[in-house]
Amino acid sequence: MKVKLKIWRQKDQHSAGRFEVIDSPELNPNMSFLEMLDVVNEDLTATGREPVAFDHDCREGICGTCSLVINGKPHGPHRGVATCQTYMRSFKEGDTIIVEPFRARPFPVVKDLIINRQAFDKIMHAGGFISVRTGGACDANALPVPKEAADAAMDAAACIGCGACVAACKNASAMLFVAAKAAHLGLLPQGQPERYRRAKAMVAAMDEAGFGNCTVTGSCEAVCPKNIGLEFIARLNRDFALALLKGERPAASAGAG
Amino acid sequence: MKLESNIPAGPLAQKWEKRKFDYKLVNPANKRKYEVIVVGAGLAGASAAATLAELGYRVKNFVYHDSPRRAHSIAAQGGINAAKNYQNDGDSVHRLFYDTIKGGDFRAREANVHRLAEVSVNIIDQCVAQGVPFAREYGGLLDNRSFGGAQVSRTFYARGQTGQQLLLGAYSALCRQIGLGAVQSHTRSEMLDLVVVDGQAKGIIVRDLITGAISRHAADAVVLATGGYGNVYNLSTYARHSNATAIWRAYKRGACFANPCFTQIHPTCIPVSGDYQSKLTLMSESLRNDGRIWVPKKAGDKRPPAEIPEAERDYYLERLYPSFGNLAPRDISSRAAKRVCDEGRGVGESGLGVYLDFAEAIRRLGEDKIRERYGNLFDIYHEITNENAYRVPMRIYPAIHYMMGGLWVDYNLMSNLPGLFVLGEANFSDHGANRLGASALMQGLADGYFIIPYTLGNYLATQKPDQRPSTDHPAFKEAEENVRGIIKRLLSRKGKRSTADFHKQLGRLLWEHCGMARTEASLNKALQAIPVLREEFWQNLNLPGEAESLNQSLERAGRVADYMELAELLCRDALERRESCGGHFREEYQYEDGEARRDDENFAHVAAWEYQGPDKAPVRHIEPLVYEETKMSTRSYK
């Protein structure tokens, strides 16, 4: 099969981008979408044109690196599937496929289809952790965790940090990403001591990075390659409201006493 | 050169305790005067960077990914071993130690492996405290499953995403330290050379993958946790960007490379479907807990699996290895699959595949239970093959998965270059000639959380605080020029063939001549062909783009240039090791039933190769493996 790609080309963060139309060479329907791009890039290289830059790594849907908007939808046509697990059998001979980077102001385009997602890391630096030092942990079975809580935490923890939720959102909100991490930790007994402080710190970092507000349209859930649900956003909203009600305790000096 | 393993004296079970006490300490006020470079942020790198920063060292972390959360540890599916004995099924530190030594076909150091088994229990505690959502029973306690090469259930897991969850745990600890300002994180930054000053590792040269800028970074010690080199074979279960460049360039600066030929070929991967294929996808070994592996008894039987009656199926692992059955270790299962396919009994279009069948488990446990245990794996299988494995058996075939070899390190995880520490898959230390399932995660985290924090301090205590060389030192200048020279050479070729094309050819050559089965003739053939291919690579490479911008073609070309050299060392090592053991199978050395024939008299040693310069043969050094506690027995899983 052959397809026509209408693909985003952009030299660097500071240049304007544009669409370029590229005819694919002969393809096999069992190729993954990224393998199709590999083949296209081989063809471009052989004919002296510059290959298309795109992010990818594990190619098994877990590292969260790949980040393409395919025909207007982050990660392409299928629900619960990342770009790298999208196969050419989902397209027809002669199709025109529009390929763009994830678009959101906090995710500037670096080149062609590659974006900068450091804003996600910054949110994590602000509070996406349980403050525990190596070495001080008690026996793992000293703290039973109800299976239901562990399973729900795992549902949230499945987030691969790709940013499709942001790309799909008309407000470029990162609420699903933040909510998934806050819920993963907040559902577990180990995460309780910092639960409210965490919610506040991560939301503040999210706002500072320039992500928009959540209006619960659900587009994030619809494109999430790991099917992370809106219920976690509800949970984060609740934790955040409670955190505001609880207010701040004045910091006590560590040297006191 | 004599390779000094620095294994502590005394009884095996007390070596680590004793050594920890003997290590020199750095006082807390001095710790902040030391800078440590950690390259990589997989399980080993992230856990090391976080833990060293918690201790008070100033840490710089470099990754080529866009975020430290993306290293390929994230793709490990099945689980992590630990000698907790929560199942009361007879597990112990000593049993985990013994299983790992035996699993490695008696080619690992006793003392290292025992230490690994000791700290395994701390890893689980640490990860649970970080909030890793391991699978639990209804009573709230941790669940376990069994894995290849063991007869106890000691594997902890988080659905089919254990590596992801452990990595996110280490990443969160790292994030906390970055937020506190204790770790400086450099993303999209690739290490391209090691800087050695007066015989000690004191810095690295880095290329910014966005701007192409080359920068110098000095430190009091350098920690490499840059993963394995399986992509030398091109097709593998590794992430596409996993590469050997950091360790290979350290090798060219004098760090010895140990046992490069010890290659793990994983028995349960989705078979190759075409020439365009960019990677192979693993189906977790945990599937072998409930799936049964079989092929038709008759060669050339092309009937659909459902039409082949029970009596005409050969459950060959259960037949050959009745006590371990479908849970035989990876090397043994892989070779068995190759043998039945070589006999013409392979399944699927290519004939290079065997069935992994869940029909019986679904009858026994119900589809829901199987979905709960392996749902995400069945989903991945469906996405790739468009087949529903709840209805038809999966087709699997072995693929390159892990490299047991790596930079040589002593008991302290320090290479023969003082100041250069190597962790995780990048070193050679703990898995001998074959790694057991669920042991890679254990080793990565053991190295990063519980070993390097002690051993690094012992080295730094010998270095004066705040005395690291400046980046103006001639060694930095020379290393930077070397990097610029390589990039310039690559970009100045205006040939006809792409990097990917060369990589494919190299991979096919290695897989054919130095893959699951190796012979003196095949290795000699490879050793003739590789230099020719390398020569052509440097003459006929067509590399687009420029150095001063984001150029993915250039990134890959640099890595493939290194594979062109590493492949030769791999074959040379395989040729010199005239025995079969674990992941290294020489057809000349086997028993009548096709099992590996080890030669303990001549090869019970680590082979560590020392670089001698371009176009010169490297020197093979030997570190004898001394077994004090265990007897080197013939490895049997029958």
Using brief descriptors, characterize the structure shown.
heterodimer; A: 257 residues; alpha+beta; Ubiquitin-like (UB roll); Fumarate Reductase Iron-sulfur Protein, Chain B, domain 2; 2 domains; two-stranded antiparallel ribbon; B: alpha+beta; Flavocytochrome C3, Chain A, domain 1; 17 helices; 14% strand; globular
Give a written overview of the molecule:
The complex is a heterodimer of chains A (257) and B (638). Chain A is of the alpha+beta class and 257 residues long. Chain A has helices spanning 33-46, 118-127, 147-157, 164-168, 175-186, 195-208, 219-223, 231-246; strands spanning 4-9, 18-23, 68-70, 73-74, 96-101, 109-111, 114-115. Chain A folds into two domains: 4-111, Beta-grasp domain (Ubiquitin-like (UB roll)), CATH 3.10.20; 118-246, Fumarate Reductase Iron-sulfur Protein, Chain B, domain 2. In chain A, helix 3 (147-157) runs antiparallel to helix 5 and helix 5 packs antiparallel against helix 6 (195-208). The mean pLDDT of chain A is 96. Chain B is 36% helix and 14% strand. In chain B, the strands form five sheets. Chain B has a five-stranded parallel beta sheet. Chain B has a five-stranded antiparallel beta sheet with strand order 11-15-14-12-13. A four-stranded antiparallel beta sheet of chain B has the order 16-10-18-19. Chain B is globular. At the A-B interface, helix 1, helix 2 and helix 3 of A face helix 3, helix 5, helix 6, helix 11 and helix 12 of B.
